[in-house]
Protein: Nucleoside diphosphate kinase
Organism: Sinomonas puerhi
Amino acid sequence: MTTERTLVLVKPDGVSRGLTGAILARVEAKGYRLAALEQLTPGRELLAEHYAEHEGKPFYEPLLEFMASGPVVAAIFEGERVIEAFRSLAGATDPTVAAPGTIRGDFGRDWGLKVQQNLVHGSDSPESAEREIAIWFSA
Ligand code: RTP
Ligand code: MG
């Protein structure tokens, strides 16, 4: 089996609430290797590329505004089936109903805002992972 890579983002809500370490620790503790790490406040151009598939959806503008609102931590994790594994660790998109034991289920809630603030992003396929890693780690 070939080793996979995934892009994990700790979104601005996760960073500002001081949850970066707790979130990354869960992925490391499950056994995946942290291969790269950076913190940046993303600009609109980077976010438009990252979220191209959502352009035109009702939550698109609020999503970009939220993601540009403060520092984001971007990480690359490596290991067999890490893409699937991280999606499972993250839990459902809506943090209100995400299962307890998941990152979103344990740390997230609905804040009554225009977009789901759900702490993390994880690539959803090998193709997305390579595309997203190139966007966030271009240097
Ligand atoms: P992600 O891409 O961030 O890992 O999350 P996901 O696959 O679970 O969710 P996706 O459908 O790709 O949506 C991307 C992000 O947009 C925000 N969102 N808000 N109705 C809403 O308010 C809504 N729907 C989506 C979330 O931040 C979601 O993670
Ligand atoms: Mg997605």
User: Anything to note?
Assistant: The first helix runs from residue 12 to 16. Strands lie at 4-10, 33-40, 72-79, 120-122. The chain has one domain: 4-136. Residues 59, 63, 93, 115-116, 118, 121-122, 124 surround ribavirin triphosphate (ligand 1) (CB under 6 Å).
